[in-house]
Amino acid sequence: MIVLQTRVAPSERAAIAAAVEVLIAGGLVAFPTETVYGLGADAANAEAVVRLYEAKGRPAFNPLISHVPDIAAARRLGRFDAAAARLAERFWPGPLTLVLPKAPNCPVAELATAGLDTIAVRVPQHAVARDLLAAFGKPVVAPSANRSGHLSPTTAQHVFADLDGRIDLILDGGPTLVGVESTIVACLAEPVLLRPGGLARVDIEQALGQPLAEHPGAGDAAAAPIAPGQFASHYAPRTRLRLDAQSVNAGEALLAFGPTLPAAAEQAACVLNLSPRGDLIEAAANLFSHLRALDAAGASAIAVAPLPRTGLGEAINDRLTRAAAAR
Ligand code: TXA
Ligand code: MG
Questions:
Q1: pTM as predicted
Q2: Which of 38, 63, 173, 194 stands the most exposed, by the fewest C-beta atoms within 10 Å?
Q3: Among 234, 255, 236, CA closest to 244
């Protein structure tokens, strides 16, 4: 792995250009934001997003924050109501993430939003992050650049210690100023505080002219969904899922995996294969987009072929189980 020192552009154009090359190639770049260091990947490249989850270890396919350089770019990802527009105008760029209804034609991979109809968006303030986003010209998903379960990194050295050998490049922009993650506010109905963070609640309430409802843990994918549909952290298809299907019933849709289909696959109303060659990276990348497509097919149920539980298969099976239970 390469570590490139970069304070502020324009003197370090070469470092930014190298990082952009990595993102274009589907690789992983750690970069400073004003809150903590993020681990970035091309948000539209589902396989790059799979690698990002893998690099963090214990992949869980939790929804990620999409980072963009300005409000105009954010509007291509999510729909802003009046409160969201007010908060964005007031606090972006800065340590605030907004959870919004996904915009039509949002280019972010389904996997990066874990199949949800909502998207978390943020415009960071750090000069290096801004230069990187402007130069790449497309949304970058970035969780904190630490191994799963470890502390969020506030220096390039933290990132190096945690992720050396697992990512392609670190942009070293010095210690981060804020030191805690961004505050997350959902603007889906009444604005709700999902995660306290670098922007104080009072500042948000002052800008809104109203108190913020609070749902502790709702921004945490491990917590139980509080208002089903609205803050659900798990994708919930309308069609019933039948897991570990050894055979297909007439009228069912089939979510297949690998070269061998379950018995009676020809009875399926429609078939999508997560990975015909049996590759778990490809399967993870296709998981939520295929589920969504089959859900829209109007079948009586979605039969899901057995998937290996090894490696990424553990996370894929976990998400399928949650999707099956979430209805
Ligand atoms: O300061 C930050 O926000 C840093 C820097 C790198 O931007 N990023 C960060 O990402 O903290 P991460 O992945 O560690 O935390 C993102 C949080 C997770 O708790 C996730 O569940 C939540 O955002 N989240 C993402 N999309 C969501 C959605 N559609 N609805 C509710 N919560 C969401
Ligand atoms: Mg984190």
A1: 0.90
A2: 63
A3: 255
Q: Whose CA is nearest to atom 7 of ligand 1?
A: 38
- Pick the ligand that lies closest to the CA of residue 180: 1
Over residues 85-128, the pLDDT tens digits come to 999 999 999 999 999 999 999 999 999 999 999 999 999 999 99
Among 184, 193, 233, the mutation site with the greatest number of ligand 1 atoms within 8 A of its Cβ is 184
The string of pLDDT tens digits covering residues 185-197 is: 999 999 999 999 9
Q: How far is it, in rounded angstroms, from Cα 324 to Cα 229?
A: 15
Task: Locate the ligand 1 atom nearest the alpha carbon of residue 65 and give its number.
Answer: 25
Instruction: Please identify, among 214, 231, 249, the residue that sits at the C-terminal boundary of a domain.
Output: 214
Asked whether residue 219 is assigned to any structural domain, the reply reads: no
Residues 317 and 257 in one domain: yes
Residue 309, domain extent: 241-324
Based on the fold, state whether residues 202 and 80 are members of the same structural domain. Answer: yes
User: Residues 210, 213, 215, CA angle at the centre, nearest 5°?
Assistant: 160
User: Are 172 and 35 found together in one domain?
Assistant: yes
Token readout for 130 is 């801004």
- Which residue out of 52, 65, 117, 118 has the highest number of ligand 1 atoms within 8 Å of its CB and is therefore the one to mutate? 65
CA distances from 268 to 249, 251, 303 (A): 7, 6, 9
On whether both 173 and 260 belong to a single domain, the answer is: no
